[in-house]
Amino acid sequence: MARKKPTARRRSSKKKRRKGTTSRFPGRKILLTLLVITVGYVAFLDFQVYRQFEGKRWSLPARVYARPLELYVGLPLAPEQFAAELRALGYKFVAVARRPGEVSRNASRFQLVSRPFVFWDGEEPSRALRASFSASHLQSLQDDRKGDAVALARLDPLEIGSIHTARQEDRILLQLDQAPDTLIRALIAVEDRGFYTHHGISPRAVARAFLANVQSGRVVQGGSTLTQQLVKNFFLTNQRSLWRKFNEAIMSLLLERRYEKDEILEAYLNEIYLAQDGQRAIHGFGLGSRFLFQRPLQELSTAQMALLVGMVKGPSYYDPRRHPERARERRDLVLQIMQEQDIISQAEYQKARREGLGLVQAAAGTSKSFPAFLDLVRRQLRRDYNESDLVSEGLRIFTTLDPQVQWALQKSLDARIRPLLDKQPELEGAGLVTHSANGEVLALAGGRQAGFAGFNRALDAQRHVGSLIKPAVYLTALEQPGRYNLASRIDDGPLEFEQSGQLWKPENYDREFHGEVMLYQALASSYNVATARLGLELGVNAVIKTLRRLSVEEPLNPYPSLFLGATDLSPLTVTELYLNFASGGFRVPLRSIREVLDANGEPLQRYELSVERVIDPGPAYLVHRALQMVIEEGTGRALNGRFSAQLGLAGKTGTTNDLRDSWFAGYDGEKLGVIWMGRDDNKPMGLSGGSGAMQVWAALYAAAGAVAAQPMKPDTVEWYQVDKLSGGLADSGCDNTVQLPFVEAGSKPPNAPCARGGALRWLPEWLR
Amino acid sequence: MKRLVAVLFVLLGACTTGPQRSLPPVVEGSASRPPIGGATAPGDTAPQPVEVPPSAPATGGAVIALLDRADSYRASGDSANEAAAIERALRIEPNNARLWSRLAATRLEQGQPRQAEQLALKSNALSRGDRRLQAQNWQLVARARWALDDGAGARAAERKARDLGGS
Q1: Among B58, B27, B101, residue whose Cα is nearest residue A712
Q2: How confident is the model at residue B31 (pLDDT cuts 50, 70, 90)?
Q3: Residues of chain A with pLDDT under 50
């Protein structure tokens, strides 16, 4: 439309020129040309401003939320963890909580008023709650007003990020009626008193500003109306040329002609540039409030609103974090204007002036920026949505991130890596924690620096996995119960094998050979030679087939060195592999998203829980037991000092040649954690699986809490006592025994020499 | 009535799964108890390891509240939200075999027989000798397999349900 107009005018001007030759005024030609150009230019500006305004109205980045904290009696959560979560959510700690978003704490007792929030399944209302904790659990949950027990309450979820355009803009969209009246009146009083009467520009304000500027000899005051400021924000340059001013003035007039005052004000509230957070520009009062105070705009005090209004004039000059004194003076000036204009009373004014700036500094270790996890979310979303919908449709995305686990993971990685950085400045780490039963990703660290968006090692680092692959070899064997059981003897003596013309001579980590060992011992102690021999009996293809069934899709090394993990996998794939073991033989697809809502809160999509049995119950139970033996007596036994044996933890260490990679994959009754440490350039860094990754894992589970594993024994499996020396079935005559499960229909070892045969049965203790 | 059924349903579930965070590891179930009044021989089953004292308060209240919710969604024909409520309950009690069974039934109604079958198998894997629940799950498997045109598989599942004493 805008482009057509000028040509139409040009045609008509030709007609006029022919007429004009007979005209007595030669200047008319020039005037007409000027008129045409002006009209065309104005139409062009009109189109520009229209496009910007409409575009901004609908361009809303997808907002991403962590899992909401569900409160119920029995919830495993320490009072300190609860307090950290509330702080991250921006709850205000007060003497008595009265309004949504307030909490009062007395040791392990909390009294709070939750915020209302619209979830997938409807609105969770605001509730007044009383919660009291033991050292490790939520003990009671009551309605604060009526005193009756509350079965379940859901807090609003932590907002962990947004998916925005390349321009890195971000906002929380406000509707005009959501903005506090005090804020709007203060804004108008300070920035543009004539807003409701002018037509886009205010000659009186310009004159006043001009005078002030002339008097002081520099630019001290702008005469811009809110409309002009909005226009200026649309085009985001800071030039102060006269031509720009002129353009802005024209566009402001055009904007006012097209739109209502309230529409302009609403756009302004959402558009105005307020602060900078690294690469991210903070636009609009909604996001500004979150950014400075970690609270929704509606919950701000008068003083906090005044600070935001004051910052409009110079977001970096009045940046309250960098220039608190300056910001405070500005805020007080705004408060004074508010009082003069009767927006607040004298008493309110005095009270607000005494208030501190009330800025929130993110507490150490409770950051809300999880770029590596968001990366995973984004990848999952891109499979299902257009990029343009993600950055503009205002989707609300509910993820599986558990901030408690995420903080614990980041702290644990940092605690292990930081002291080593002097000697190993290139040392990196990554980790993934998932819920074993439903595959939800609870935490993800893509590198040692948690808040740093860069190479995402948890998803993209392809590294030799070492012994981490061995359970796949042992599972392949145990799935032939007629041939193998956990007590089967395998030879850990010297082995030579010719592989495509080359001699392969696997060695053990301790450079020794251990003779005949039981199958479970070979896995628990991670003997390479015994594993290689077992693998050769089974064949590479059989092991690859097992790995494929267990969700490993990456290309695999097709040679016997595969048995020892000479193949590259990412921590993500290792997680998918071990989830099969942690969930009792079920494949559980990883999920980082639960639900997606559109901008109006209408459900768009659910990512449902699904499972699929991929390992028969018997072998799954046996492999689980073997992985427990890793901790009980194998390479993971250092965990025994830290965790009760009753927890039944299971896991596997992984170390690659010359200590290039340190791995640990382990699980309790609830979640699986996979940790990797190493250098990006794949050079040795001096840590084994046990001395590096496993320690991170231990710190993580100590902080996040461990849950007893209690898998159910399948009917096809029975427990037997086995003599550790001979590997035979034991009785009371044997001193050194281990309890092992066997597939009842499968093979079993002969009686041990220490067992005095069938003739000499032993009596249970209570009969002796 | 519905609420009562839901309460019984979950309490029974709690009986079979026990407190989540306090059971002894690995060795459990009747089969691992040493035979009473008799001697054990090589190859007899191992004795029960030490019990851990229960510590955490039970989470049944929250699960019942969510099942109530699931029931009301079900009554209004909203199976997507019904499933979402059961999944919420499963986050609280991931080893509750009855919740997995209920989710299997919901998936069948959502027209997802393949998932229904797998979820019923998952429930059985956690059922700790609860034969009635196992029979119920095999019936679900049978219905799912009929829906998948797997007649032989369905009949096999029906046989298992019958063997377990299910009607």
Answers
A1: B27
A2: very low
A3: 1-21, 166, 362-365, 758-768
pLDDT per residue as tens digits for the range B74-120: 999 999 999 999 999 999 999 999 999 999 999 999 999 999 999 99
Question: Under a CB-based contact definition with an 8 Å cutoff, are residues A636 and A619 in contact?
Answer: no
Q: A62 - beta bridge partners?
A: A163
Q: Do the chains contact at A628 and B50, CB–CB below 8 Å?
A: no
Contact across the interface for B122 and A613, Cβ inside 8 Å: yes
Taking CA–CA distances from B52, the nearest residue in chain A reads: A646
CA-CA distance, A64 to A397, in Å (whole number)? 5
Check CB contact of A591 with chain B, cutoff 8 Å: no
Contacts of B38 (CB under 8 A, 6+ apart): none
Task: Tell me if A635 sits within 8 A of A610, measured CB to CB.
Answer: no
Percent of chain B with pLDDT over 70: 65
Q: So where are chain B's domains?
A: 2-17+58-163
- Contact B41/A at CB under 8 A: yes
Q: How far apart are CA B33 and CA B45, in angstroms?
A: 7
Write down the residue that tokens 């993990």 correspond to.
A565
Q: Which positions in chain B touch A647 (Cβ < 8 Å)?
A: 25
Residue in A438, A606, A718 nearest the CB of B84: A606
The two three-digit tokens of residue A430, written as one number? 């990554």
pLDDT for residue B156: 97
How many Å apart are CA B140 and CA B150, to the nearest integer?
A: 13
Q: A410, A450 in Cβ contact below 8 A?
A: yes
Phi and psi of A192, rounded to 5°? -165, 80
Which pLDDT belongs to residue A757? 57
Q: Check if B50 contacts A (Cβ < 8 Å).
A: yes
Helix B60-75 / helix B2-17 crossing angle, nearest 10 deg: 140
- Residue A590 and residue A383 in contact, taking contact as beta carbons nearer than 8 Å: no
- Report the topology of domain B2-17+58-163: 1.25.40
User: Which domains does chain A carry?
Assistant: 4-58 (no CATH), 64-158 (3.30.2060.10), 162-354 (1.10.3810.10), 441-704 (3.40.710.10), 717-768 (no CATH)
CB proximity B45 to A under 8 Å: yes
- Of A151, A440, A718, nearest to B65 by CB-CB distance is A151
Within 8 A of A710 by CB-CB distance, chain B residues are: 18, 23-26, 28, 95
Distance, in Å, from the CA atom of A575 to the CA atom of A569, rounded to the nearest integer, reads 10
B6 Cβ under 8 Å from any chain A Cβ: no
- Please give the Cα distance from B97 to B123 (Å, whole number): 5
Q: What is the pTM of this model?
A: 0.80
Q: Which of A654, A466, A492, A479 is nearest to A564 (CA)?
A: A466
pLDDT tens, position by position, B51-84:
333 456 788 899 999 999 999 999 999 999 999 9
The answer to whether the beta carbons of residues A571 and A674 sit under 8 Å apart is yes
Residues 97-156 of B with CB under 8 A from A: 103, 115, 118-119, 121-122, 125-128
